Amino acid sequence: MAPSVAILGSTGSIGEQTLQVISEAPEQFDVVALSAARSLDRLIEQARKYRPRLVIVDQPSDVAIVASALPAMTEVACGAEGLTAAAEMAEISVNAIVGFAGLPVTMASLAAGRRLALANKESLITAAPLVEQVRSTKGASLVPVDSEHCAIFQCLNGVSGNDRSVRRLVLTASGGPFRGRSAQSLSSVTLTEALAHPTWSMGPKITVDSSTLMNKGLEVIEAHALFHTPFDQIDVVVHPQSIVHSMVEFSDGSTIAQLSNPDMRLPIGYALSYPDRLDVAFGSLDLLTATTLTFEPPDRATFRCLDLAYEAGRVGGAAPAWLSAANEIAVEAFLEGRLSWGQIAEVVEATLQSYVADPLRSLEALIAADAKSREVARTVVAQCTIN
Ligand code: NAD
Ligand code: MG
After folding, report:
1. Against a cut of 0.85, is the pTM above it?
2. Contacts (Cβ under 8 Å, ≥6 apart) of 72
3. Ligand 1: which of 35, 97, 123 to mutate, judged by most atoms within 8 Å of the beta carbon?
4. What is the pLDDT of residues 320-345, one digit of tens each?
């Protein structure tokens, strides 16, 4: 029988692409739950097409609106409780929610011994010690959807990152729209410029994160959490063509890489089908028409978020949760025109100065850490003036 699939955050970039993958292989997957926080019209349209048993919205006031548009047998639930129920029910949960709000899906899916197809990196980064505990639940598996981590997962092919033959993980970064620009020339960039990603079409938050290299910083912590590789053995190289999605270097000098055209439907399909491979090709390469592949070091002085993330990752405990929460607040303020692009790194750095060592032993501690960091970051944002 086709495995049941919950797609949480189904109206977003990853959510929509997941439904495209499933549309290409409809007999292989049974969509049982969909969720969105906004775009209710689109959520209703999706639910009418895929007929899930459960639909989850974010606001209690939206429950009746969505329920009245769907058949009576479709249950409409709300918030973290609804997301948890979906993740416990489905054999596979695609966590395509953006930000810390994706946490209930990550925790519930693994704790229930299910497959987690994880796009929502923020939940893993912030909750790594807690995710580690539920990951060992019988039957649980975590397959990354993030293209770099899916690439590394494929390159490792069963070898864990702390195997002594693994020398380093090399994450590739496109460099974003501001690659090659000086800090001075970036002082007045606009939102439109930050949202113009050269190779990937993604949701607004991750697109801004790509422009600051915070996305790559979060991905370094994500790689550490997924593969247990020490931070000193995780490197970042800028590869503007986004064809090599990441690499693993081994002790005998071999480097294994995964290549394809940039198309998130490939890692999504891989995470859905693992350990098999989907019989539909997304992003397949024609090497004769492919452009030249180039690699260069990241400009760490201009794109400070990368090293802020390495630092928070090395500190561990709740520091990555503080970093991620402060970044969410800063990016939201930038998207709303309350902060300049250059101030995103400043807000994150200033917020982290208030961090006090916290080993993060419980979910309650994580929720408190997230709230505290947001509070500090909001104060810092309020003190910023846009020049
Ligand atoms: P998006 O903004 O396009 O979509 C986000 C989805 O989450 C929407 O369905 C939205 O309604 C829902 N959502 C937003 N806030 C919510 C909340 N508070 N509670 C519940 N649901 C909420 O985002 P995206 O680009 O699809 O990214 C989703 C996740 O995948 C992010 O963590 C991102 O870092 C990761 N990711 C995305 C890509 C990509 O190509 N888009 C690639 C790699 C990783
Ligand atoms: Mg990525």
Report:
1. yes
2. none
3. 97
4. 999 999 999 999 999 999 999 999 99
